[in-house]
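Model: You mentioned two targets. I'll fold them one after the other.
Researcher: Yes, keep them separate.
Model: Target one:
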Amino acid sequence: MIVKMKKLTLLCTRSQQDATLEKLRALKVVHIEHVQAPSSGKLEEARNHLLYVQRAQEVLRARPDTDPTGKDADQLVDAVWKLLETEKQLQEQLQGLKHEIERISPFGEFDPRDLKKLQAEGVYAKLYKLSLKEPCEIPDSVAIEEISRDKTDRYVFAVSREMFTLPAHEIRLPDRSLSRLQRHLEKTEKGLEETEAELQSYAGDKALVDKIADAAADKVTYLETQAGMGTDSAIVYLKGFYPADRESEIETAAAEYGWGLTFEDVTDEDEAPTLLRNPKWVKPIQAVLDVIGVVPGYKELDVSAIFLIFLSIFFAFLIGDAGYGLLFIGLTLFGKVKTKGNEAAQPGLNLLLIMSTCCVIFGGLTGNYFGIPTESLPAPLQAITNDFMTGLSTETGLRDPDVAANNIMFICFVIGAVHITIAHVWNFIRKINSVSCLSDLGWILSTWGLFFLVLEMVIGADAIPIPMMSKNILGGMVGSGALLILISLLAKKEFFGLVTLALDLINNFVDIISYVRLYAVGAASLAIAVAFNEMALGMGFKGLASLGAALILFLGHGLNIILCAMGILVHGIRLNTLEFSGHAGVEWGGIHYNPFKKKNETLNN
């Protein structure tokens, strides 16, 4: 359920501003809407400090835990930053040394100071790289000594009693000899190791740095709220939104602190935040919404319950393996034990438990356990399979994989049509007092007409397990649906919709077909499992070969599980957030309800 919001305007004197903001933050109720763009010197300083602390936080999080240093909080971040600066300088120094060594290593070991002494005595020495393909002309007054060569060039030492320049690539003399450069390189690498070890010693202070970062973030939020307030002479004021059922808390605080208040209903022009408040059984889906970072708009439908139900069904079809489902259940229960007391982890684990249970049920009905043929399963597992879903013929007593595939696809299309119908039925009920409801009634009719057309085109009229409707009835359903949509568009004067109506009907047809991905991905997962099982069987389970077979099974099924997980993200979530949501009119463009509070404080919603 999307919680009803109301608008708040709060007024206080300038002298009360800080006390007002502190109390408002303690209430954890008001989602602030800035009256003006926040800007101040203190705010800019606080933002820079937050970035400063977050950089130290990021560096320490990347390192394994160790014991705390006991260092003072004020000194800790500065110490980490000094080490980061030292590390940066050493890294730059290291790159420079490596480049210099690479540049002069073809000339071997020599001391540049000796060459400078020769120059003082009137002997000029230079280093050159001469091309083997294009030899240059060497003056008689210049003597050269080849030091080394590679496939394309030779590296020489050129000497003369006169100043000279050869028509070739001259190599600048280094400041130090090759051996001194290498010693400096070793010293720099050692310095980097020591710096890294010192940074690692601070990894035990992650919790303290997290507290510092949270405090810095709280200061930024406070100053943004303060700088975003409107001013009028001696009065300052702020605006925001709050859950309507918590109005009394604001009134009580206003009476105590002497605030001026105005409460207003949210209008269509307002960008009110969305607060979802659902029954306990629906809350697990919040884990998915948090991961993908979306929330329905304030004026849209809360589809959380439908999302949970159908995502669990999609999970079962896309994974399709009872063995994998049991494995997921075991890992989930282990995770719940390890995270006992961690409330933030429970919604995600509960969601995985629900989806895995659905997967076990679907896998049991289809007789799929780690890709093992149904005929090879123990009799109790064979007994719980569903004849329709496994393509079992009552006449021959044999399972036909083609019939099973058609039946599973049929179920997928039924799920798709029902899913889309729920969206339009929901909207029809909401719009029942408006002519707009005719549009949704039209889409319901056209969806079921197109559903039978999809069955005929994809599965075939002779292969579907229900009687096929006549073309006249199907045409009448789609035509009547289109007519109702047309009447609704004309009544609402949405003339552009008339132009796109044909395309919208085609999109509806495509949306129904898109649910075949549930079968396709599940079938691909089964094929991969079967392929790796056959590879392992081909290697055998005798002697050392059994180790190879076990490795194949472990890696093969592990890869399959990873691909299945990707399928849930790509297909399972997509069918809810695009196909279904498109028909329900949910654009997922809502603003998360984020009341003014300290970062790590929990909400009382």
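Model: Target two:
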Amino acid sequence: MQDDLSSLVVALSKSGDFEDAATRTLASLMQLTERTIASSKFSGRGKVLRGMVHLRPSGGYLRLAILEQGATAVQSAGSAGPRGAPSLVSAIAWRSVVQHGCPVFIDVTLGTLRPYSPQSPDKIEELLPGSFSSQESRQSFLSRQASHVCVIPLRTLGSGIGGMISLEADSPASMGQDFVWRECVEQLQTIAEIASPYLTGLPFRPAPQVEVDEYLPVVGASMANLLPILNVFAQQEESILVSGATGAGKSRLARWVHSRSNRRKGPFEVLDLIAVPEDLQMAELFGWKKGAFTGAVKDSLGSIGRAEGGTLFIDEIDKLSLKAQAGLLRVLEERSYRVLGDGAGDRGADVRFIIGTNVDLREAVRAGRFREDLYYRINVLPLRVPSLDERRDEIPLWANYMVNRRHREQFPQGQARLSSEAEQVLSRRTWPGNLRQLDNIIRRAYTLALVEHGATPELTLAEGHFSRALEYEGATGETPEKVAHSVTEAFRAAATAFIAEAKRRGTPLDLGLAEALVGMVLGQAVQQMGREDAFRALGRENLLKNRNHHKVLKRELEKVEALYKDLGEGSSPFATLLAEDETN
């Protein structure tokens, strides 16, 4: 075993990406399990089928790699395997791994799960609650010949859990037993702990070219890495929980999933809870019969009824009342519901649910605002949508798409575009409002361009149009409290963009370059108010008295120039100011 571990460490140290590290890790785990089977009472009556690495930082799926028995390299999620889309390990298994911080053993045939507890080896198995105990989920595994599964946590720095490894085996003869997992689990854990820094730290291989469509007309590098796992999600029937900031594109992703699912010929229904009063939520979900309540003048199907045979996207799920949460939980568990005022009994719910949220539902559970059982019932296939500031390569692409969509409402054969300078203006900004905020700016700049050039089939939006459009963004009459909040949000967005760039590039991004933020604030203030007024407004009047403000301004603007140079973006907007200081 020691020689095998030494060989694995050497092999992992040579791995250049996540996929290579996953291949080496899973091969080692599967070989160890095969040797254990060969020396056990199940020799000749059991075999390892496949291994999977599930990366789930912050609980949301990021990457899934599968190594089938006999294969020499992992398949990434979304690639066609011998049995089609892979069955994902149940949400309850992930919950158990996180809760107990230890491996768990699943007997698929019996639908039982047992955490590995060396202190209590005779612990009685219990029937799994939630999705895995359903006949549908169990059949999903059995159709892949998997009778036993071992799930091992992937630990990150600080003892957090950033994913898991699952090993699937076929051994009907060991039904009701732990198969061979207990005999080799500690060695399996050792291998997982050795491999974890490589699996969670190495970059992914570049995603294949993604074909854009009406639902995702723009796909940058970050989204290209997420779409393969989302494509796997589309093939499943379990609920998807899509989290992300308001305006990041959760609804678009939901429509994209529906269009690639087995339900794509059925309806796609949206229920945005932020627009539904609390006392009408049950009615909007389940529908009503005429006379069920005041104002019910005719029958209504409700969102679940309208989505029959298709997909229902429920956005802003945290706005759902506790009473309505109980009703939704029943639908998810029993696949049935009752229309308000209908005495004819329950109706079946042949619906796939996609849930959207922009808040931390775990915090809502802790605060008592969201049912814990419902949280785990919807958190089966979780995915986090990156903010637009984390997808900065998409900003000019989305901007051109949005302006052309707007322009072709008037000129179907026309063409509108942004100048390269205009694209740079947008790319330099942060976007706390995400795609929704960008779309507002595009519409405003488009109107300004029409005012200047008139209605013409060929239209170019210049830097000036966006500079003026962005000026209006600040003149909204916000209260001081909102302005203060927007400052902190902007600073956080800047930090997010800085980190995203550091993760994107192949070489380190020096943290010292973040000091350029001071220079940007000072340079912008000087441009708007003049030097002396700027230093006074920013609490540096003492520098004026000592006449040191020229030196300080030069020093801070040089930091801005260094940042622009490092990012390969040419001169900063304050290059003229810097040149003036050098001539003084």
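Researcher: Noted. Anything on target two?
Model: Residues 79-85, 123-133, 475-485 have pLDDT under 50 and may be disordered.
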